[in-house]
Design a protein that fits this description.
heterodimer, A: 719 residues, alpha+beta, Aldehyde Ferredoxin Oxidoreductase,  A, domain 1, Aldehyde Ferredoxin Oxidoreductase Protein, subunit A, domain 2, 3 domains, seven-stranded mixed β-sheet, six-stranded mixed β-sheet, 29 helices, B: 65 residues, 5 strands, 12% helix, 31% strand, binds iron/sulfur cluster
Chain lengths: 719, 65
């Protein structure tokens, strides 16, 4: 009945019929373009040059975005576009992790391109429906639902006034509406955001897939950089796709047996070794909560410290034993035997508009437990799950929300803000109910929660200008860079990871490089040149997942038994070869592992130049807040005094004896900042960039990313 | 004194791979251990002694969070 009323309230704005393009060797060579407001829908051919240089996925997203925007475009301008694209491998079912979508837009957090990698069935279904990419630009006046019927070849845009906005509700409604029966629900995937995404710049996108066993529409998140905010600003309630007939060979690969062989090998390895390795099938990425604590890497109390005596309360085994459903393979696309997409089922909510509802929560991921939990001083698994649920359904990036709240809590504890600024909330570390209240406020666009939703960069300015806070101190402890909040690892003791966060294209997200063990524990990259090599190789290698529509977890959260015996174990050479085989198997090409890196280098450098075109992307933008490098306060120094004193003696050559804590903090700081600058020099050199971080024209020619529009941006900046 | 991943660690009589990992709080599940370049399988951690002056590698197999 409810669905019937929703349907009756709809107004058709436009319909577009098309002949689904055949999928050959991973490509349809067609893209779908929707212009809201004007209600224009059109299909375009993907030029051969674009396919050659940009490969797919994030490469296509960035290229289409570049063409859509001007240097002056802000996130809420109509020309800003949201682009969703898989890649040539996206959609195969024989190899774990092959169903990812990449989403690009101009971010409200960073004012430059953001990209986010997300599961759910949308990316594969888009391709099977005839398109390598979907671009949505323009703005609607009223809320709309876009529907793509991939079998009949029809796209509609309809005004949709009655559907919900919160992710878990609208995903259920639209799955119900568009499926013919229960069995058909698996053929539906929905992109939606949530009510907080209407107010918060940290708004995310949910991508659904229907879980037939649980009979629920599950949500996976394109979390970083505020894409959900752009989505709701365009007044999109949802994009729905339906495709019936998924099979393992729809990508029409050139060599199916090559793909199968790689897949079988990996499935066997996961089956035999996962229980003793990462336990991804039991608990997913949350397996590392206690590991990070043991190595002093788990951010606690706004990244002041790396461990806490209460971590055992949120350790992975607590979630396994009490909350996370076991014994169900949980892949976010067909064929993923690593199955890390765990859920807490029948979880009864204690707060907010859905209080008393029993829900399925996708999570917790490690980042949720660390960001919503330890970093805010919260060690209650039920609060972490509840906040995880509300972040998802309201459309809020858990990482940014955790880091922002942790920052506000530290400001509160230090007396920089008080109850008169927080609307009466006692924002001390560990106050879980205050954290949840901020989320609920954010969903309504009210109170202090509204400000939290605008990010650490906004809060620094707001606290300084409105409440007279010391700006320099806020710059030190506010864990954002380029406008994006730092993800949930403490990088103080790993220079390489400071670079892994700082010397990135989109901001401090760890999906480019996570080098903490290689650097801090294994001591495998001791020199600046070693670190620079790692900060070239790993970001390029990991960019490639985004070009293909792949998940990175099956690369290194499972390893062959003999991996330790190989020349370069950190790279996991057998898996690298698998990826080369997958690409060649799907596309019929014959690349090797070097060409794989080259494909990424082209897109990575294009993104860097895109940032420069938007007025960012230079050395000055790659600086990190000092909290990420070393102790800002006396408490932090004293908590690890032995370590810092020893380093002062051994690395800096200064005797700490007789020095005040303040003097020692200053000495350590001067040293560590200098190290970061030297690392930056080394990385830029290795990446073919000038000392200001601009790709040189010679390097762009060498890698084949010397398109005229790219050279036009960088030529005036050559030293 | 022994070297663990190129950094000095105080050696004690009767130190095994297992006791060294415990002392270091190296709890990560995917660690490859070598003593003076010789690989030590997991099932031998308890019974393999580390000698004074040994060069030990305890390589954590994680390059991506
Ligand atoms: S490893 Fe996890 S996130 Fe990656 S594809 Fe598989 S289920 Fe999805």
């Amino acid at each position: 009945m409810e669905i019937k009323a929703m349907k009756e309230a709809r107004t058709l704005l436009t319909a577009f019929d098309y002949e689904p393009a055949p999928l050959e060797r991973g490509y349809t060579d067609r893209s779908l373009h929707i212009r809201l407001g004007e209600n224009r829908v059109e299909a375009r051919a993907v030029p051969a040059l674009v396919r050659e240089k940009f490969i797919g996925g994030k490469g296509y997203g960035l290229k289409l975005l570049w063409d859509a925007v001007k240097p002056s475009t802000r996130w809420n301008d109509p020309e800003n576009a949201i682009i969703v694209a898989g890649g040539p491998i996206c959609g195969i079912t024989q190899y774990p992790g092959s169903g990812k979508s990449l989403v690009c837009t101009i971010s409200p957090m960073t004012d430059m391109p953001i990209d986010s990698n997300v599961g759910g069935y949308f990316g594969p279904y888009l391709k099977f429906s005839g398109y390598d990419a979907l671009e949505i630009s323009g703005k609607s006046e009223k809320d709309v639902v876009i529907f793509i019927d991939g079998n009949s070849g029809r796209v509609t845009i309809e005004e949709a006034p009655l559907e919900a906005v919160d992710g878990h509700v609208v995903a259920e409604q639209l799955t119900e509406m568009y499926a013919e029966d229960e069995e058909d629900k698996k053929n539906i995937s929905i992109i939606c955001a949530g009510t907080a995404a209407e107010h918060a710049n940290i708004g995310l996108l949910n991508f659904s897939f229907y879980d037939l066993r649980r009979q629920v529409a599950r949500l996976k998140q394109a979390g970083r950089g505020g894409i959900g905010r752009v989505f709701r600003d365009k007044k999109i309630k949802a994009v729905v796709i339906r495709f019936r007939g998924t099979k393992g060979n729809l990508n029409k690969p050139a060599d199916q047996s090559r793909i199968n062989k790689a897949g079988i090998k990996l499935h066997r390895q996961i089956h035999d070794l996962d229980d003793a390795q990462c336990r991804m099938r039991q608990i997913g990425t949350a397996n590392i909560i206690e590991v990070m604590d043991a190595y002093d890497l788990l951010p606690t109390h706004n990244y002041q410290y790396g461990s806490h005596p209460d971590t055992y309360k949120i350790a992975s085994k607590v979630f396994i034993e009490k909350y996370t459903t076991q014994g169900m393979p949980d892949g976010c696309w067909y064929g993923c035997s690593l199955s890390c997409a765990k859920t807490a089922d029948h979880f009864e909510l204690k707060t907010g508009p859905y209080k008393g509802h029993k829900v399925t929560i996708d999570g917790p991921e490690y980042e949720n437990a660390a960001g919503l939990g330890s970093n805010c001083g919260i060690f209650d698994p039920e609060i972490i799950l509840e906040a995880n649920f509300y972040c998802d359904t309201y459309g809020v990036d858990t990482i940014s929300f955790g880091t922002i709240t942790a920052f506000a809590m530290e400001c509160y504890e230090r007396g920089i803000i008080d109850k008169s600024h927080t609307g009466g909330l006692e924002l001390t570390f560990g106050n879980a109910m205050a954290q949840l209240e901020l989320l609920h406020q954010m969903s309504r666009g009210e109170g202090f929660g509204y400000h939290i939703g605008l990010g650490v960069r906004h809060l620094k300015q707001y606290f300084a200008e409105e409440f007279g806070a010391d700006r320099a101190f806020l710059e030190d402890i506010g864990m954002e860079q380029k406008g994006l909040e730092v993800s949930e690892y403490l990088p103080k003791e790993s220079l390489a990871q400071q670079g892994g966060y700082g010397l990135t294209n989109k901001g401090p997200q760890h999906d480019e490089a996570w080098l903490i063990f290689m650097d801090m524990v294994n001591n495998q990259i001791p020199t600046f040149e070693d670190k620079a090599e790692a900060l070239h190789y790993f970001p390029m290698f990991r960019t490639w997942f985004g070009l293909m529509g792949l998940c990175k977890l099956p690369w290194n959260d499972t390893t062959p038994a003999d991996n330790g015996m190989t020349d370069e174990p950190a790279k996991i050479p057998e898996h690298v070869q698998n990826y080369v085989d997958l690409y060649n198997g799907v596309t019929g090409a014959s690349i090797d592992k070097h060409e794989l890196i080259r494909q990424s280098e082209r897109v990575y450098n294009f993104q860097r130049v895109f940032n420069i075109r938007m007025g960012k992307g230079l050395r000055v933008h790659d600086a990190m807040p000092y909290r990420s490098m070393g102790p800002v306060t006396a408490q932090e120094y004293l908590s690890r005094q032995e370590r810092y004193d020893q380093q002062m003696k051994e690395l800096i050559g200064v005797d700490p004896e007789g020095k005040s804590v303040e003097e020692k903090i200053a000495i350590v700081r001067a040293y560590r900042v200098d190290q970061y600058e030297k690392l930056t020099d080394a990385v830029y050199k290795r990446r073919g960039w000038s000392s200001e971080g601009v790709p040189t024209t010679a390097y762009l020619r060498e890698i084949g990313m010397d398109l005229p529009e790219v050279l036009e941006v960088v030529t005036p900046l050559q030293a | 004194m022994i070297q663990v991943n190129g950094k000095p660690m105080i050696w004690s009589e009767g130190m095994t791979v297992a006791s060294m990992l415990k002392e270091k709080n190296y709890i990560y599940a995917k660690i490859v251990v070598k003593i003076n370049g010789v690989f030590i399988p997991v099932e031998k951690y308890e019974s393999t002694f580390i000698h004074d002056g040994d060069d030990v590698k305890a390589i954590h197999m994680l390059a991506g969070g």
